[in-house]
Amino acid sequence: MNYCLITPCRDEAEYARRTLDSIVNQSIKPALWVIVDDGSTDATPEILAEYAARYDFIKVIRRQDRGKRAVGPGVVDAFYHGYQTLNPGDFDYICKLDLDLDIPHGYFEEMMRRMEANPRIGTCSGKPYFRGANDQMISEKCGDEMSVGMIKFYRTECFKQIGGFVREVMWDGIDCHRCRMLGWIAVSWDDPQIRFEHLRPMGSSQTGILTGRMRHGFGQYFMGTSFLYMTASAIFRMAHPPLIAGGSAMWWGYVKSMLARKPRYNDPQFRQFLRRFQWACLFFGKSTATERLNRLQEKAWQRFNATIAHPAKTTDRHVKIAGVAIDNLTMTEAFESIESLIHRREPTFVVTPNVDHIVKLQHNEAFRAAYRDAGLVLVDSMILMWGARFLKTPLKEKVSGSDLFPRFCEVAARKSYRLFFLGGREGAAPRAAEILRERHRGLQVQTYCPPMGFENSDSENRKIIQMIRDYQPDVLFVGVGAPKQELWMHRFHKDCAVPVSIGVGASFDFVAGYVRRAPVLLQKTGFEWAWRLLAEPRRMYRRYLIEDPKFFMLLWHQRRISH
């Protein structure tokens, strides 16, 4: 058993030494502790450097000063800045840890012992306490059905499966509910040996405890909590310090957000699941409702583990055309595979072959190398679909980049994935982003259109990579045409540290309206090439009339030798 800690921090000089000392004195020390200093202006950097010099498992990463302490999405951004530097598969457990805690000596050993005893536990924690008047330890009254945000201890497989943390307020509640949706158990225990001291009380980390509680109310609104449940929760909180004011501030934060019609977490299925659970909590009590739900969701967990244990056989999954192995997936299956790759957080890329790709792959070794290393190969041509049928190895469905791109943007808005659009003609990517944000509220996207010949410029490539790394997207869409986009992704996808990069050709131009795509009838009947030839004859005649007909000879040769 081993575990990795990731700690986002800023200006923690007052508390850092107590946390650092409590970790280096653990009965089982972390295999790696990545501490992301998010622009501290106090003595934090010097303290971290001191401990990193003494303990080789501590790695400190320094981020540029953003000018202020960031909570919620800012904390998750800093966490992922550290997460992208490691291979999650190297660790059994991963923990997001704050730098203002005093942790008991055997804390992490006990967490792992309990999780090893129950393989359904996906995330867990002890309970936080803070010091009140007369040095009295006061519980922060966190529910047993949640692992607490300041010390989120995760089974790595579970963390990958839920898609990690969303970059929004209430990220530390959404993750536990997503665990339950997939059959995992989220839990915290109030046992003396795993209680820990929170040196900065919950909700007091920015501009005061009442502001923090109002922020919590907005977070509950964003997550999808119902008004009735929020009111009941606020009344419960009124009986705990700060008396009356804390619960009232939470309730007002919720109501203020509701009146302002602020955006909510854009996943209707999640909100429906959450509200069913919350109604059950009101009727049966939170403890009974959680136990009932965990029993009901056991089958979902078993299905997930069966998928892990018995992945699809590669012989069933691939169809070979002219030496190119194509993943035999429907659009829905392709989306599931892409999301699985996002959750793994191990950089890879997706290619979408058409007839032109197949022909170029016969004589371009660098292009072939890119295809060999691709994480997914999805068919982007009706002619290839017919070719596979001619070879008596039919493909399930055409999954073109131009169809996948706008549809995945809808999923990204719903699940808070961050996107980066690279390429397109001048102005196309920003315009496409603007249109897609209007269609899908909450879509997070950044764009950049590089100059011609950028792929041959070391300085321009360094600039692009840094821009992408700073933004930390979950998916990078590259639209600069083949084979340039595939070669660029193959060369730089690991440097960019993006979980999934996808080549999408002219998709930005299509969505932006700069290039008109063929009518659906022509797309479905395999004549999209003719539409593009008529639209851009000078640019396309050589591809479609001279080069691509070679494909049919390749197809005929494969059919002949296979029989």
**Mean model confidence by pLDDT:** 89
Strand coverage percent: 5-15%
Proportion of residues in helical segments: 40-55%
Radius of gyration (Å): 26 Å
Structural class: alpha/beta
For the largest sheet, list the strands in their spatial order: 3-2-1-4-9-6-10
Oligomer: single chain
Q: The biggest beta sheet, please?
A: 7 strands, mixed
| Domain module tally | 2
Characterize the overall form. Answer: elongated
* Tally of individual helices: 26
| Total beta strands | 19
Please, could you describe this protein's structure?
The protein has 563 residues and is an alpha/beta fold. The protein folds into 2 domains: 200 residues, Alpha-Beta Complex (Spore Coat Polysaccharide Biosynthesis Protein SpsA, Chain A), CATH 3.90.550; 202 residues, no CATH class. It is 50% helix and 15% strand. It contains 26 helices and 19 strands. The strands form 4 sheets. It has a 7-stranded mixed sheet, sandwiched between helices. It has a 6-stranded parallel sheet with strand order 15-14-19-18-16-17, with helices on both faces. Strand 16, helix 19 and strand 17 form a beta-alpha-beta unit. Helix 10 packs across helix 11. The longest helix is centred in the middle third of the chain and has 17 residues. The N and C termini lie far apart (52 Å). About 2% of the residues have low confidence.
